[in-house]
């Protein structure tokens, strides 16, 4: 072990030789992904990488930006693979509750259409044709399958409680459940709270929390399901109530650690209530699926602590391409722009990965770390290219971290492009950027 440690330290001091050694290993050992088309199979991965996921129960697939077509398409591609080959049936996304019920109804053969449902998702980020394709495929996959093999769709974020009141009151009325007087008004008040409120009545918010707990007790006491359909309805209602309760707490705290902890709790609840054999797939940002603890415990770290090696985190990385962002124009207006990034930033993992022969590939870190060259690369503390919900910003400063601390594997795409947003369903700044700005780094 001392030998490996010394060699790794020496390796970290190399520059060009380091890059060449890493790309040589990738060219020989990384699993090439044929393309970033969500409708084509993962032929190479199935042939060469099927053993990587054999003991995994929960998959976290990230994205280095929230505005990239190839990340979305590749996540759809891998979800299809996992559903078809690894028995994954639970899909969980970093989104608010808003139309989760309607999506589940649709993918199980109910009314609606994929474009309308994707276009009404809670976060504008997901209102695109790439997600539309996912929903349509989920519906097709479910056709003719028994209930225990059908795919289910869950939103796991707590940043809003939109429509939770509607869905809870629908459940209460459907089964004529006896509840305390005034609970309908409480549900309406909680679901319309704003995290941007300048004055937050802590006493009232804590009072809401107590009333929501009372409602849960009333539901569990007064409603005893008599069949599987009723049991499913009960689980859906209790999960919705959990989201509403979490949102009430988020209004008080508005902190990322609270949010990530809630998402982790939701993931665990979902898996527990879908049976011991349930396997899940999480669609979120790199920073959430990451198992590293930089400045607070993230979703992925909570899950790694709970599931150990049964949780597999996949980061996404890119070198160049077109990225959405915003800027303030001469009139002091915030406008949407497209940044045409021409190259990876120097001294980043992406600068090294972009030198590989393949334009899209997968690297499993457990396998890679057995090689001394890759061990050093994965353990180097480097700045990673990362963009959040506000879009790309040329001067953003990313935190330095070790790839091996963040993820169990990585998907690299050399060149990325913008998603195809559903017309009329996103902000004007996203739908119609006013300018393209070239960035060379």
TrEMBL record:
Signal sequence range: 1-17
Superkingdom of source: Bacteria
Keyword Signal: yes
The entry's keywords: Signal
GO BP term, example: response to antibiotic
Name of the protein in its database record: Erythromycin esterase
């Amino acid at each position: 072990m001392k030998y490996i440690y010394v060699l790794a330290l020496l390796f970290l001091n190399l520059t060009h030789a380091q890059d060449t050694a890493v790309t040589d290993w990738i060219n020989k050992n990384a699993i090439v992904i044929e393309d970033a088309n969500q409708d084509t199979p993962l032929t190479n991965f199935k042939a060469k990488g099927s053993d990587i996921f054999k003991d995994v129960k929960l998959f976290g697939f990230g994205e280095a930006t929230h505005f990239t077509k190839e990340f979305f398409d590749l996540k759809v591609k891998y979800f299809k693979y996992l559903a078809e080959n690894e028995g994954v049936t639970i899909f969980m996304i970093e989104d608010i509750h808003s139309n989760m019920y309607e999506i589940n109804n649709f993918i199980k053969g109910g009314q609606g259409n994929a474009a309308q449902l994707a276009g009404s998702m809670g976060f504008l980020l997901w209102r695109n044709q790439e997600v539309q394709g996912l929903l349509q495929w989920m519906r097709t996959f479910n056709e003719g399958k028994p209930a225990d093999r059908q795919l289910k769709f869950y939103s796991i974020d707590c940043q809003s409680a939109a429509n939770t009141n509607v869905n809870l009151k629908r459940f209460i009325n459907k089964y004529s459940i006896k509840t305390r007087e005034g609970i309908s008004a409480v549900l309406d008040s909680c679901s319309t709270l704003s995290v941007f409120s300048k004055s937050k009545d802590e006493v009232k918010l804590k009072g809401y929390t107590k009333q929501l707990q009372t409602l849960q007790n009333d539901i569990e006491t007064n409603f005893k399901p008599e069949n599987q359909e009723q049991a499913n309805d009960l689980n859906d209602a209790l999960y919705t109530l959990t989201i509403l309760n979490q949102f009430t707490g988020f209004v008080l705290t508005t902190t990322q650690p609270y949010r990530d902890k809630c998402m982790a709790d939701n993931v665990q609840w979902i898996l527990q209530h879908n049976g011991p054999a349930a396997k899940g797939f999480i669609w979120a940002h790199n920073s959430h699926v990451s198992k590293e603890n930089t400045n607070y415990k993230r979703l992925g770290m909570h899950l790694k602590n709970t599931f150990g090696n049964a949780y597999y985190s996949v980061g996404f990385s890119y070198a160049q391409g077109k990225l959405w962002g915003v800027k303030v124009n001469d009139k002091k207006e915030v406008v949407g722009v497209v940044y045409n990034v021409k190259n990876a930033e120097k001294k980043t993992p992406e600068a090294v990965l972009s030198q590989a022969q393949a334009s899209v590939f997968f690297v499993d870190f457990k396998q890679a770390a057995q090689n001394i060259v890759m061990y050093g690369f994965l353990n180097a503390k480097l700045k990673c290219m990362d963009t959040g919900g506000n879009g790309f910003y040329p001067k953003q400063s990313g935190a330095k971290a070790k790839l091996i601390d963040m993820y169990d594997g990585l998907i690299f795409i050399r060149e990325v492009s913008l998603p195809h947003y559903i017309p009329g369903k996103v902000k004007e700044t996203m739908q119609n950027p006013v300018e393209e700005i070239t960035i060379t780094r």
